[in-house]
Amino acid sequence: xxxxxxxxxxxxxxxxxxxxxxxxxxxxxxxxxxxxxxxxxxxxxxxxxxxxxxxxxxxxxxxxxxxxxxxxxxxxxxxxxxxxxxxxxxxxxxxxxxxxxxxxxxxxxxxxxxxxxxxxxxxxxxxxxxxxxxxxxxxxxxxx
Length: 144
Hints:
Layout: H1 23-38, H2 46-53, H3 55-60, E1 77-80, H4 93-100, E2 106-111, E3 114-118, E4 121-122, H5 127-142
Antiparallel strand pairs: 1-2, 2-3, 3-4
Helix pairs in contact: 1-2, 1-4, 2-4
């Protein structure tokens, strides 16, 4: 599809079909599976997998002003904690992100320039209350 000029993007769908909602895993799998299936170790390089998980997603959804860090676009971005062994040696950052990172490495998140996650904690929602309510809803379904 990519060779035909079709924009290919990635997503996690939902918790119903992807339990961990980890975009790093999706980007890694896209890069690795294409290499294995095609037999071409250069298929879907790390930088292309990153674009599939970012700017191509915005393009696929016909969204403007998101998907990249550029002047005039919304500042939606993350900060990844790279002070961990799986980010060594410090050579190719994009390859480390695609092949080694996971959602657990995300320290901070900004949406439209506003920080919504700081040091791994959500600043805009009561996470404990949401977990309690989700568990209660689940238990309610089981008791029916």
